[in-house]
């Protein structure tokens, strides 16, 4: 417990989550704080434990400073018999002494002064909107005050909005009698129709504040993720030790290549068997991006990224040239992966279909395969004449660059000419390498890998496309074809020798993810990948397929894959709605920075809608996201995205701790942030969000540079920590007629002829 005014005004800017053993309904709170990087601790209270939890020791440091700045309860432990009366009073006393707020989920309406409408108890979806009284709760969370929240799968009994009592009783079974503190509860979350509500801001007569929701929550619900952000911001008085950065980055692999369709399509009288993005496509997407950014909240900067293959430029220009006149030497390279080759079975890789653990001694061919299992794919590109066993005749590949003609490229490839001649495509989109001809790198030699990288670099250089001198270019990160080569040490070593030390993975494959910390990249090891230290950035697949240009194409494949899941065919609007919910719930609201995978064929504007697949997908995601938040939304080029991941990794290595200083009148005066002494000696930037008022733009993001083992103090201006004067009892109690000044927790011994901290020393 606090013992002096100096320590009473210090508390760690850390969140406590109180729950019970086995209860999974804290995952949305953990996901919210993991995404922001907010320090927190989950404590599961077990009444059957041999050693009961000592709440005084839990809440207070030995020096008298508070260990937490606020706490969540999920479920509502105060009212389900998990806490005894002494525990409850200790928690309440902690709030009084520190100004800490609480937020509770699974609260019965009667415990916050309302009557439950038991006839309306349900888990069906019934829209909810924020009440007029929710403005101080929304604060600087950036949650959209006009949001409509669903609640499908969340069991609740709504309450009528007129308070039934003037107190908020806690009457758990183990209490000898109910505790009935006076309170005023204001609805903050209304059900459709406005007569009933599902959440309230509770202000107790002694000054404590608590946010209460009548349903338990979980991360499967976008509503719960929204309420996680809202309640956390309110809980910490809009002083958040974390970073809120919503990123939506989309890669369109295979730019300049032509993608074959699995079957021909006819639209507008035109039959197509393949598609290659055009200048008109890029122009349309630049216009669409500008319109989209104008609608997004201030600070937004959405931009598509193009991993490109330079061989497609030569192939297209050659096809447009007069036979025999095109000077460039074209390279015929097999681009199939392990699973597409007969050697996958003849080399004994079959066990990989059940996982790498079942392969006791696979051959080198098998070990180099990035992906360890696969499902039948009816849309494989027909085999090319070369294979891993029967390679194409070796060619002096780099020498072919001298045969390239800029004039022939510009004359024969309108798309390449547009990129070369106009600034818009290189400033309006981000660019990175995807190798020259899309050769799968799982079993590529060092020479082949080197040629793929150097030829594409030559095409990207100022002599041709001119990408490498632009701010939009990423030089040290790339997307490998088919997410290949990640277990081929020769290929990875060659990437490193060419300055590439980060590649994208595929979240579909669990072994390409960092299982210990999903907000970090996975780093290769010599034992698993053949080389240490190459970063594998998580990247998410989408339900927009690589060989589709129209909604009809994409829907045919989607229904082929998922008919048995839904027991019916889906509409394309349903596909987009499911994708939007998934991306917003599992990506943007969790502040995951993983980019998303699409392909060049998805840029096509060939049907009557005038909108590409990526336009439709992004528009659906943005509509879902802005329905809930006012946060800026931006994209980051691959090198910058890698730096963002590395900054997060450095912060986590620093093991940051924050401490807030407050005056007796409740004004927050400073935050001190400290870094643990990391073994790596890592430096990091400690994030701190400050702000007040509705709207994400009101929250100011501060980054505090720290060295390993160092600390820094940030002085605050105008930040109110609590809305009431904190009651700080004197400890030890005042003796001999001394009067406790509860504002500062100090005994006033005036007129007693005694002195000392407790007026016990004769004067």
UniProtKB/TrEMBL annotation:
Residues 726-760 form the EGF-like domain. Keywords: Disulfide bond, EGF-like domain. The keyword Metal-binding does not apply. Disulfide bonds join 730-740. Signal peptide: none annotated. GO terms for molecular function: structural constituent of cell wall. This is EGF-like domain-containing protein. It comes from Monoraphidium neglectum.
């Amino acid at each position: 417990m606090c013992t002096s005014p100096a320590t009473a005004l210090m508390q760690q800017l850390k969140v406590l989550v109180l729950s019970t053993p086995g209860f999974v309904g804290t995952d949305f709170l953990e996901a919210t704080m993991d995404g922001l990087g907010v320090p927190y601790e989950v404590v599961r209270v077990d009444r059957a434990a041999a050693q009961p939890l000592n709440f005084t020791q839990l809440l207070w440091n030995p020096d008298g400073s508070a260990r937490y700045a606020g706490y969540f309860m999920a479920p509502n432990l105060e009212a389900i018999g998990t806490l005894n009366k002494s525990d409850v009073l200790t928690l309440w006393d902690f709030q009084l002494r520190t100004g800490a707020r609480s937020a509770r989920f699974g609260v019965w309406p009667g415990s916050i002064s309302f009557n439950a409408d038991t006839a309306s108890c349900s888990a069906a979806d019934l829209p909810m909107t924020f009440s007029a009284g929710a403005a101080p709760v929304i604060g600087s969370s950036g949650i959209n005050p006009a949001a409509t929240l669903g609640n499908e799968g969340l069991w609740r009994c709504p309450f009528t909005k007129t308070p039934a009592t003037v107190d908020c009783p806690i009457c758990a079974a183990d209490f000898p009698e109910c505790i009935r503190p006076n309170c005023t509860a204001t609805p903050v979350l209304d059900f459709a129709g406005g007569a009933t509500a599902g959440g309230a801001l509770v202000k107790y007569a002694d000054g404590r504040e608590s946010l209460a929701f009548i349903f338990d929550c979980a991360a499967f619900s976008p509503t719960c993720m929204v309420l996680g952000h809202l309640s956390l911001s309110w809980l910490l008085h809009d002083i958040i030790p974390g970073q809120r950065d919503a990123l939506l980055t989309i890669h369109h692999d295979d730019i300049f290549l032509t993608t074959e369709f699995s079957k021909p399509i006819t639209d507008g009288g035109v039959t197509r068997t393949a598609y290659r993005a055009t200048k008109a496509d890029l122009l349309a997407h630049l216009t669409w991006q500008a319109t989209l950014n104008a609608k997004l909240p201030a600070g937004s900067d959405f931009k598509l990224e193009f991993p490109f293959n330079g061989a497609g430029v030569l192939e297209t220009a050659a096809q447009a040239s007069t036979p025999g006149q095109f000077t460039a030497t074209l390279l015929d390279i097999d681009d199939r992966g392990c699973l597409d080759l007969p050697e996958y079975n003849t080399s004994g890789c079959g066990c990989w279909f059940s996982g790498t653990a079942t392969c006791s001694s696979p051959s080198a061919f098998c070990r180099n395969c990035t992906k360890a299992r696969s499902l039948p794919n009816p849309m494989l590109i027909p085999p090319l004449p070369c294979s891993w066993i029967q390679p194409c005749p070796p060619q002096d590949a780099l020498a072919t660059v001298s045969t390239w003609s800029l004039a022939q490229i510009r004359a024969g490839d309108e798309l390449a000419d547009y990129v070369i001649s106009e600034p818009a495509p290189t400033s309006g989109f981000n660019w990175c390498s995807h190798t020259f001809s899309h050769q799968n790198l799982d079993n590529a030699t060092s020479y082949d890998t080197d040629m793929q990288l150097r030829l594409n670099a030559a095409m990207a250089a100022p002599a041709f496309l001119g990408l490498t001198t632009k701010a939009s270019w990423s030089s040290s990160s790339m997307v490998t074809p088919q997410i290949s080569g990640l277990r081929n040490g020769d290929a990875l070593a060659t990437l490193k020798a060419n300055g590439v030390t980060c590649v994208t993975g595929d979240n579909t494959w669990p072994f390409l993810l960092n299982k210990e910390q999903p907000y970090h990249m996975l780093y290769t090891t010599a034992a698993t990948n053949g080389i240490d230290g190459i970063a594998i950035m998580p990247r998410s697949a989408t339900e927009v397929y690589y060989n589709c240009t129209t909604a009809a194409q994409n829907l045919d494949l989607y229904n082929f894959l998922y008919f048995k899941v839904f027991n019916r065919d889906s509409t394309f609007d349903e596909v987009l709605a499911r994708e939007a919910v998934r991306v917003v719930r599992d990506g943007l609201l969790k502040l995951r920075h993983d980019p998303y995978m699409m392909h060049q064929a998805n840029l096509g504007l060939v049907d009557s809608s005038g909108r590409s697949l990526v336009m439709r997908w992004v528009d659906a995601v943005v509509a879902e996201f802005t329905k809930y938040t006012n946060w800026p939304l931006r994209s980051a080029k691959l090198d910058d995205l890698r730096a963002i991941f590395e900054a997060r990794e450095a912060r986590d290595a620093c093991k940051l701790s924050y401490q807030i200083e407050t005056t007796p009148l409740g004004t927050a005066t400073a935050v001190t942030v400290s870094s643990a002494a990391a073994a790596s000696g890592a430096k990091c930037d400690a994030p701190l969000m400050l702000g007040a008022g509705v709207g994400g733009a009101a929250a100011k993001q501060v980054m505090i540079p720290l060295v390993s083992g160092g600390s820094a103090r940030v002085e605050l201006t105008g930040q109110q920590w609590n809305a009431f004067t904190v009651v700080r009892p004197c400890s030890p109690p005042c003796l001999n007629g001394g009067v406790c000044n509860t504002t500062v927790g100090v005994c006033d011994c005036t007129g007693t002829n005694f002195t000392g901290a407790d007026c016990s020393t004769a004067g």
